[in-house]
Amino acid sequence: NHPGSSAVIVSPTLPTGDARLQKAGPEPPSLGLHGASLVWASPARSVAEKVHGKLGHVMANPAAAKLLSLSGLFAVYKPKGPTSADVLNQLKEKLLAEAGIQKCARKRKKQILKIGHGGTLDSAAAGVLVVGIGKGTKMLSSILAGSKKYMAIGELGKATDTLDATGKVTEEKPYDQITKEDLERVLQKFTGNIMQVPPLYSALKRDGQRLSSLMKKGEAVEAKPARPVVVYSLSLQNFQPPLFTLDVECGGGFYVRSLVSDIGKELSSCANVQELTRTKQGPFTLEEHALHEDKWTIDEIAQSLEHCMSLLAVEPSLKKLKTEHSEESTVNCEDK
């Protein structure tokens, strides 16, 4: 006997894939069937068969079939305001609705559509958000570790607890003495391989919880130790005190908020980020590849995937699908 199991009789006259399933009770001493096969199905198997049945029904819909066949990386535009996870969920909901697929109510239930993003952008930031769909979710770790470009507007003379305009002002210092030449000279110290302390308000975790969440709850949070990061290029685009505009190209794990704060301290003042835009991630640029919400359709994404995946052919580190774990609903790795 197999406690908790049920017998499933598979008709011998039908192929296994189309077999009519008849649920039976406890195992009988002898079924007396000739040519029939007896399969013991655990509760998990029964669930799997139900999912298979639903998937077969979904695949009969051309739009759904096309959606579930999509695989690779593409880019969308993330506006200021929503979190990266919000944008990803909105994208997923639009695609499922267009395909006529009912959204799974339970988070832990196996998701039909695999989708994830390759690096969190602050809710106050905008720009390129790389998305992996299907097997493309396995390439997200490579995108996360790759190069990115940002345009940042900093404000001299004010420090905030979040290191950007969304936080509370914690310090104010004079900035009138700072010249354009002073700022350009300081930028050289932050180019190349440097050490950087991540912000307290970040997606980095302590005991499984984001530091930003702990900070909002009023809990004491210690700064993470400085870690090595790389800045490929850093240039001053505009200087109109107290505002200054930077163009930054950096590697993975880099925080532009920390950079601007550190620049302010180096100038014997303080600074915070007023605006932040990711203009490029990997080979995907804001102007050419980031799809705005009105283009979040199955056909538009299919075309974008074809174009974007051709760009990856010249990126040696991304030619091969990576097998590292990446969260398929959201990738909780903050990187700005």
From TrEMBL:
List membrane-spanning regions: none
Q: Which GO terms describe its biological process?
A: mRNA processing; mRNA pseudouridine synthesis; tRNA modification
Recorded GO molecular functions are:
RNA binding; tRNA pseudouridine(55) synthase activity
**Which domain of life, per UniProt?**
Eukaryota
Please report the stretch or stretches of sequence annotated as the Pseudouridine synthase II N-terminal domain: 107-256
**E.C. number(s) listed in UniProt:** 5.4.99.25
Where is the protein found, in the record's own terms? Cytoplasm, Cytosol; Nucleus
Q: Does the keyword Nucleus apply?
A: yes
Output the Pfam families linked to this UniProt entry: TruB_N
**Cross-referenced SUPFAM superfamilies, in alphabetical order?**
Pseudouridine synthase
This protein's UniProt keywords: Acetylation, Cytoplasm, Isomerase, mRNA processing, Nucleus, tRNA processing
Reactions catalysed according to its record: a uridine in tRNA = a pseudouridine in tRNA; uridine(55) in tRNA = pseudouridine(55) in tRNA; a uridine in mRNA = a pseudouridine in mRNA
Q: Which GO terms describe its cellular component?
A: cytosol; nucleus
User: In the UniProt record, does the keyword Nucleus occur?
Assistant: yes
User: What's the stated role of this polypeptide?
Assistant: Pseudouridine synthase that catalyzes pseudouridylation of mRNAs and tRNAs. Mediates pseudouridylation of mRNAs with the consensus sequence 5'-GUUCNANNC-3', harboring a stem-loop structure. Constitutes the major pseudouridine synthase acting on mRNAs. Also catalyzes pseudouridylation of some tRNAs, including synthesis of pseudouridine(55) from uracil-55, in the psi GC loop of a subset of tRNAs. Promotes the processing of pri-let-7 microRNAs (pri-miRNAs) independently of its RNA pseudouridylate synthase activity.
**Member of which family?**
Belongs to the pseudouridine synthase TruB family.
Which protein are we looking at? Pseudouridylate synthase TRUB1
Natural source organism = Gopherus evgoodei
